[in-house]
Amino acid sequence: MSAEYKVALTFEGADRIDIACRADEDVITAALRQGHLLLSDCREGSCATCRGFLVDGDYDQLLPHSPHALTDAEEEDGIVLACRLRPSSDLVIDFDYPADRVGRYEDGTRNGQIVAVDRVADTVARITVRTNAAQDPFQWEPGQYLQITLPAVGATRAYSMANTPDGGRELEFLIKLLADGRFSGHLAADKALGEPVRLRGPYGQFVFRGEPRPVFVAGGTGLAPVLAILRSLAPATEARLVFGAAQESELFALDELRSLRQTLPHLDAVVTVERPTESWSGATGPVTDHLDPIDPTRAYYLCGPPAMISAAELRLLAAGVPRDHIHTERFLETGDQQP
Ligand SMILES: Cc1cc2nc3c(=O)[nH]c(=O)nc-3n(C[C@H](O)[C@H](O)[C@H](O)COP(=O)(O)OP(=O)(O)OC[C@H]3O[C@@H](n4cnc5c(N)ncnc54)[C@H](O)[C@@H]3O)c2cc1C
Ligand code: FES
Q: Where does the record place the 2Fe-2S ferredoxin-type domain (predicted)?
């Protein structure tokens, strides 16, 4: 049996939560096991969301992580990634956010049914799931996601809600169709309408933090949580959106974006296509070509394929945007992992 250590988590040097952490588990997982959802996104050392300061204690070596999330020099200064840290002694870790941002992890499971599947682009489907009337509707924050299990194919995947929580039982998802995808391939083959699903969550910290003049950058179905956030913004918000797809035939939700301009009159939306046909008259190139003018005082919300996010993040950091102004949701391949 693995050794177990006491880990004191403090928040802005003040409020404190004590957890136990085994030598063979990371701090985020241990906290989750004990009902505390610390700020974290990727849980694999690439997003930097879980950074904290090691006030006291030891560990042997952080689990593999990206230098973009934590450099060796930062680690020498005591910064750690909680999702990559397994203790070898009792620890004290301080996080640079208030304790009220720590969520309570509750095993919220619901049953539901796929009540609509609409092809909205060559490679994208909008699915509507209705949860069981005998269970309370889900409550979530725009930007969060659920783990959806499709028993017909025995696959569980993470998908972000594109609609806003209104107390109802309908959930809207925008899903990229991969012909050989266990989950999305079943949708692509038109076999999913009417099928039962199990849903668990909500999860995720890709939620709007209320900054003035936010900028949203979405690649492909990365638009789903961004749409949910945009749909919930106050009308006076001066927001910018850069939405990109590889080809015009992969664009979707353009009508929604047009109607959002009515409710958000100060929304500046750029839709860009990487490989346009001759008939395309809009912006061209990857989303990273449309970040200018980069303003380090604005908050940036990036969602979509991991490579797109890393490229955008590098550009923003190089232009002087502080790391804590950049919020990311990487659509990592979820495979059959459970949170
Ligand atoms: C927090 C989070 C939220 C997410 N939200 C969404 C969402 O709102 N909409 C959405 O479409 N996806 C989303 N994803 C991704 C989603 O969970 C699945 O990983 C994805 O749909 C593939 O599942 P699948 O069963 O169809 O394919 P799999 O059977 O898992 O994979 C099939 C093949 O496709 C490859 N592959 C997997 N993902 C991709 C990809 N994105 N592009 C190209 N090839 C790929 C695999 O390597 C494999 O070869 C999210 C992921 C995370 C972590
Ligand atoms: S959650 Fe730890 S680096 Fe992403």
A: 5-99
Number of Cβ within 10 Å of residue 299's Cβ equals 20
Could you say which ligand is closest to the alpha carbon of residue 150?
Answer: 1
Sorted by sequence, the CB contacts under 8 Å of residue 171 that are 6+ apart come out as 112, 128, 129, 130, 131, 138, 146, 161, 163, 199
In this structure, CATH architecture of domain 109-203: Beta Barrel (2.40)
Q: How confident is the model over 120-178, as pLDDT tens digits?
A: 999 999 999 999 876 778 999 999 999 999 988 989 999 999 999 999 999 999 999 99
Residue 65 has pLDDT above 70, yes or no: yes
Pocket test for ligand 1, best of 156, 157, 336 (most atoms within 8 A of CB): 157
Tell me if 181 CB under 6 Å of ligand 1: yes
Q: What is the pTM of this model?
A: 0.76
Indicate the fold that domain 4-101 takes in CATH. Ubiquitin-like (UB roll) (3.10.20)
Give CA–CA dist 237/139, Å, rounded. Answer: 24
Neighbours of 12 (CB within 10 A): 11
C-alpha 33/C-alpha 157 separation (Å) is: 20
Q: Where in the chain is the domain with CATH 2.40.30.10?
A: 109-203
Q: Contact, 76 vs 62, CB < 8 A?
A: no
For the CA of 304, the nearest ligand: 1
CA distance 95 to 97: 6
- Is the minimum distance from the CB of 226 to ligand 1 under 6 angstroms? no
276 to 173, 176, 216, 286, 303: CA distances (angstroms): 26, 19, 22, 11, 22
Residue 44 has pLDDT above 90, yes or no: no
Question: What's the half-sphere exposure (Cβ side, CA atoms, 13 Å) at 127?
Answer: 28
| 124-131: strand order across its sheet | 155-160, 145-150, 196-203, 109-121, 124-131, 170-176
Which among 296, 275, 277 is positioned nearest to 286, based on CA atoms?
A: 275
